Amino acid sequence: MHKFTQTALAVALACAAIPAFAADAAPAPTPAYTLTANVGLTSEYVYRGITQTARNPAIQGGADFTHSSGLYLGTWGSNISWYSDAVPGSSVSMEWDLYGGYRNTIGNIGYDVGVLQYYYPGRYPTLAAGAVKPNTTEVYGALSYKWLTGKVSYVVSKGLFGVDNADGSYYLDLSANVPIVDTWTLNAHVGEQKYTGTATTGAASNDSLYSYTDWKLGVTKDLGAGWSATAYYTDTNAKDAGYKITGVNGNKNLGDSHFVAAISKTF
Questions:
Q1: Could you give the residue ranges of the DSSP H alpha helices within 18-137?
Q2: How far apart are CA 208 and CA 213, in angstroms?
Q3: 3-state DSSP call for residue 120?
Q4: Which of 70, 173, 209, 256 could be a cystine partner for 151, CB 3.0 to 4.6 Å?
Q5: Which DSSP string do the residues of 187-255 spell out, in sequence order?
Q6: Are 170 and 195 in contact (CB under 8 A)?
Q7: What is the mean pLDDT of the chain?
Q8: What is the per-residue pLDDT for 149?
Q9: How confident is the model at residue 130, as a pLDDT?
Q10: CA–CA dist 117, 91 (Å, integer)
């Protein structure tokens, strides 16, 4: 046998004996969809700067379906007390959210559009003329760049959290989640809740009673294995005329300052 042929045969046999590490190292294909769930415990449920539980703890949880195309659906829930605190004879102790939308990126810019339904199951007294249940529907759009996100949520239902004639109201949200050291993230936020329409009682407008600005500053710690902990301070300039409930929260405005600590787990 020719020396070159012998050498080629030896090389071929040696290569055949080498395990196919390169093939084994090929990245796994992207799954068509993902399913995740989350559960959390918080010292108080504060949403857009307004306490939903009158300074009492809340247990919360949800689930999300995300398709590789960018489409997503989700649900989330928490205990609340604000409606029953404000409306004698009612028994409304849960917020249940349903949402869906589409998110993707264009270059370094992320975008997200969708619809969110807030649903409050419970027992309601006979509603006064012009009053509505707190169930609310919003459409939203958001743009993000690195750690900065801007979002607008626009009300398309007749009422907004129990305020009648409020379709067309909106919430503007600017948030920053900045990595600082190792597993720590700085969280900052400012928002503007704008109400439209005419109030059902008195001569005041929904705008003058219920519109406000809120802000938040805090930190989040990634604890590993899906666990995270967060703590933040939040405050608003919400007016007493719209947000102070006699006998609740120590006769304080529901939009007064709050310090909140929470822990959560994502599966």
A1: 21-24, 82-86
A2: 12
A3: coil
A4: 173
A5: EEEEEEEE--SB-SSSS-BHHHHH-EEEEEEEEEEEEETTEEEEEEEEEE---HHHHB-TTSGGG-BTT
A6: no
A7: 89
A8: 98
A9: 59
A10: 20
Q: In angstroms, what CA-CA distances link 220 with 172, 179, 187?
A: 23, 9, 7
- Quick check: 161 and 134 in contact, CB under 8 A? yes
- How wide is the angle at C-alpha 233 spanned by C-alphas 228 and 239, nearest 5°? 135
User: Residue 100 burial by CB count (10 A; 0-12/13-18/19+): exposed, middle or buried?
Assistant: middle
CA 185/CA 264 separation, integer angstroms: 15
Report the pLDDT value the prediction gives residue 6, as an integer from 0 to 100: 41
Taking phi first (over 0 means left), then psi (-120 to 50 degrees means alpha), and beta for anything else, what does residue 32 get? Answer: alpha
Q: Which residues does 169 contact at the CB level (< 8 Å), separation at least 6?
A: 154, 155, 160, 193, 194, 195, 196, 197, 206
Q: What pLDDT does residue 250 have?
A: 73
Structural tokens at position 81: 């007390």
Question: Would you state the pLDDT for residue 16?
Answer: 43
Measured CA to CA, the distance from residue 134 to residue 136 in angstroms comes to 6
**Integer angstrom CA distances of residue 150 from 84, 98, 112, 147, 264:** 32, 21, 10, 10, 24
The pLDDT assigned to 129 comes to 60
Pairing of β 33-42 and β 58-67: antiparallel
